[in-house]
Design brief:
The structure is a single chain. Helix content is about 30%, strand content about 25%. The model has no long low-confidence stretch (mean pLDDT about 90). It is globular, with a radius of gyration of 23 Å. The chain is built from 15 helices and 27 strands. The protein has 3 domains: about 180 residues, Rossmann fold (3-Layer(aba) Sandwich), CATH 3.40.50.980; about 180 residues, Rossmann fold, CATH 3.40.50.12780; about 100 residues, GMP Synthetase, Chain A, domain 3 (2-Layer Sandwich). The chain is an alpha/beta fold. Helix 7 packs across helix 8. The strands form 6 sheets. A 9-stranded mixed sheet has the order 2-1-11-10-12-13-14-15-16, with helices on both faces.
Length: about 525
Amino acid sequence: MRFLIEHMLRDSAERYPNKDAIVAGDARLSYSEFAQRVTGLAVSLRKLNIQRQDRVAVFLTPSTDLPIAIFGALQTGAVFVPMHHGLFPEQVVHILNDCGAKILITDSMRLKKLAPVIDQVDHLETLIVDKVLTKSKLQQHDFAELSLPISDNIKSCSIGKDLAAILYTSGSTGRPKGVMLSHNNIIAGAEIVSEYLSIRSTDRLLAALPFSFDAGLNHLMTTVLTGATTVMLEFKFGREIVKKIMDEGITGMGGVPSLWSLLAQPSSGLGKQPLPLRYITNTGGAMPQHILTKLRSLLPATDIFLMYGLTEAFRSTYLPPSQLGRRPTSMGKAIPNTEILVVNRNGKLCQPGEEGELVHHGPTVSLGYWNQPELTAKVLRPHPITQPGRTSGDMVCYSGDIVKTDESGYLFFVGRRDNQIKSAGFRISPTEIEDVICRLNPIQQAAVVGVPDAVLGQHLVAFAIAEDPAETLDPKEILAKCGSALPRHMLPRRIVLVDDLPMTPSGKVDYPKLTVRANSGVKG
């Protein structure tokens, strides 16, 4: 039985000892080597007085050290806190202080950047780095020495309900919040996703998403569960991804809309030769329809799964590839072993076509927000439908996302409850406008925000990236084309052409930053 996350690694190491587990650049770890180095690190962490439920923060680039650090912390009974390798020092300090991390595992380059602020961290005792520096007041240890392979297993003191990870949101609505995930949560997510994606030990999956993002972390966990191979990659250009797919025989990968937009560009080389990709998945936001159309054309032999989820409950829905032609804008239906409800403001189930909040019920519902009980109580609440035998402890997750279903029960995203724009008395979803801008114009990606307006309440401003940077576009022409598909109250007051959009570490558009730009009256 797999009660704990480290049991997945132990089982795969026993079944596939010599098989590639982790590939990062020229470095390769077999499952046997992976498990032995994890045990070595776990033994070392215990010698450093890491106790059950202590927090171990991990601030590393994509490398073989990253999964070793995660599983090593787990095997001691500790809680791992993964941080995106691109975070700024102030963001790292906030997370370290908020979670009360006892140990930070990082590299010397990042530690140098943290040096001016590291003393602002209250509970930190130890640094584990790839190269020991002498200037820090904290005790330091060499990662390679602490993770020397040990073949004997050590027994964990954890149970399945224990906290296993704290994933910090990107902070799009304020300072980052820590979402708490148990061993049970993470194992359930791995089992569910590996089932509907049919992931097997023969798969080689590209880790294009960071492990600090719930979908990226699930990628690692599904490969370990099934004995598949994780190929890690840090990239800037689409052609780097395509080359890695060919070189490593990648059979599956997940991405967010910005990644697929990058790959859909001619410069990536996607579609110029047959690829071994069995499937791709999209999460982190709706895939623009023009990008989806391009991908279906460029990857005719690849299954495309559209998925929806939220960190607080992981994955909620997916659309089978067979439905793409009929319902290309749908979020699909509930993932296995999960109940998805659409509830109106009165707590009643919505009828088809009626807009309501998506509510998630199942084994992936998180433990809530770290040290924020009031905020947790707003998101995690008792099930809205009373059933015999159901207790008040059976919590569901209120997503904050407004959706609706069709007559067949397929879900469609309308907008964020806290991101909808109210203009001239109308509640407007930015997503719908963004789709129209991209569909009717040579636009690669668009994002719409609301700006305070004395008459309308808010007026709309759209930021857009041209498909061809060399082409000169006229914002007035873009708006004119949109006028044929959008009612007057949904037309942006202006279109701002930009080279790129601000992104959160998880690859989503940073709407708060765009709102600041729009309020400042930026023209480009």
